[in-house]
Design a protein that fits this description.
Layout (H helix, E strand, L loop, with lengths): L3 H8 L3 H8 L8 H13 L6 H8 L4 E7 L12 H17 L2 E7 L2 H10 L4 E5 L5 H6 L6 E4 L8 E6 L1 H14 L5 E5 L7 H15 L9 E3 L4 H12 L6 E4 L2 H13 L9 E6 L12 E4 L2 H16 L8 E4 L2 E3 L12
Parallel strand pairs: 1-2, 1-3, 3-4, 4-5, 5-11, 6-7, 6-8, 8-9, 9-10
Antiparallel strand pairs: 10-12
Helix pairs in contact: 1-2, 1-3, 5-12, 8-9, 10-11
Length: 340
């Protein structure tokens, strides 16, 4: 079995150059050299000994992508379209940078502790954490941490998220400017200092700007599943006083739209609806969903890139990154005639 030294000798380059090519760190290596080294690697069927390298460098090149499972959730990490898109972005970027991704769901602090004891992660990426005992246990590790969609403030971590309050405001202001005043807010259960709470604050801020009274009776919370959304659509179809719904996730919006239609309501004829995310199925509903767009795949890619940059010695990285949002107009919102 050839070694990395054998590859370097045959290619006429240093071991460091071969290592850089193996791990896709090619920015300072001429392309003809990269091609020559890769050809020699293929011809000799060379495979890096990851276990030996991990022992020498104390580095596994494994990035843990950890989901903190809330027991009441009925949808899995992989079934959720947001997390699927995020994982796609993380995996692609880590692969390009020469790292490996391990995805794991843990329910509590004990499972987290066991995970770190049994696996040598170089770093971890997590979504939607809160400042609680689980996060306190996470901080006991000395590994770099990237959080997605979390409002935890801590100098040790990198945060990547959205202006969720601004996104909620954008959605509701759009509905109001289309003539809607009695607007439902539909979301998963609220958590203090969480993404959904911020979107609710945006909803309230838009109502306040246009002098529309807030009604607690217009707030609906349930798990984000298609079935839950359909059931809520049936409930909302009975409310003849509302004209629009802001759903904080497209999968929930799609379910509500389906439930409304099943119950005999017309969308947007009777009730308009706007979602949040702009995943592919927002264009599969009839009518297609108007929504607030975020790039979940790019969010995952950015998280992986920041992690790789930090592990490779770049300490001049932003600790907090806010990604852009935009409004995508389709057919699920109609303009009401505003009486003078």
């Amino acid at each position: 079995m050839p070694t990395i030294k054998d590859i370097a000798r045959e290619a006429g380059v240093s071991v460091t150059t071969v290592s850089n090519v193996i791990h896709s760190r090619n920015s300072r290596v001429a392309q003809d050299t990269v091609d020559r080294i890769n050809a020699i690697i293929r011809e000799n069927h060379y495979t890096p000994n990851l276990s030996a390298r991990a022992l020498v460098n104390k580095s596994s090149r494994i990035i843990g992508v950890i989901n903190h499972l809330i027991r009441s959730q009925s949808i899995s990490f992989f079934q959720d379209p947001f997390h699927s898109a995020v994982l796609g972005g993380i995996e692609k970027t880590l692969q390009e940078r020469g790292y490996y991704m391990m995805v794991r769901t843990v329910a509590d602090e004990d499972e987290l502790y066991s995970l770190f004891n049994n696996w040598n992660f170089d770093g971890v990426i997590l979504t939607g954490l809160f400042d609680d005992s689980f996060f306190a246990r996470l901080l006991e590790t000395d590994k770099p941490i990237v959080l997605l969609d979390s409002y935890i403030k801590n100098d040790r971590i990198f945060n990547i998220g959205l202006d969720d309050r601004g996104g909620g405001f954008m959605a509701v202001q759009y509905l109001i400017e289309k003539g809607h005043k009695n607007i439902v807010f539909a979301s998963p259960p609220l958590h203090r200092h969480g993404v959904v709470e911020e979107r609710l604050k945006g909803y309230k801020a838009a109502l306040k700007k246009y002098n529309i009274p807030f009604s607690a009776g217009n707030i609906y919370q349930q798990e984000i599943t298609l079935d839950e959304g359909i059931a809520l659509g049936h409930v909302l179809s009975k409310r003849k006083d509302i004209s629009a719904v802001f759903a904080t996730a497209d999968i929930l919006a799609a379910g509500i739209l389906t439930g409304l239609v099943q119950a005999g309501s017309k969308v947007p004829g009777d009730i308009s609806i706007i979602g949040f995310d702009d995943f592919f199925y927002s264009q599969l509903t009839s009518p297609q969903l108007t929504t607030i767009r975020q790039d979940a795949k790019e969010k995952g890619s950015l998280a992986a890139g920041i992690m790789a940059d930090f592990l490779e010695g770049n300490e001049n990285l932003p600790r907090n990154t806010t990604m852009p949002l935009s409004l995508i107009e389709r057919g699920s919102v109609r303009k009401l005639k505003i009486s003078k």
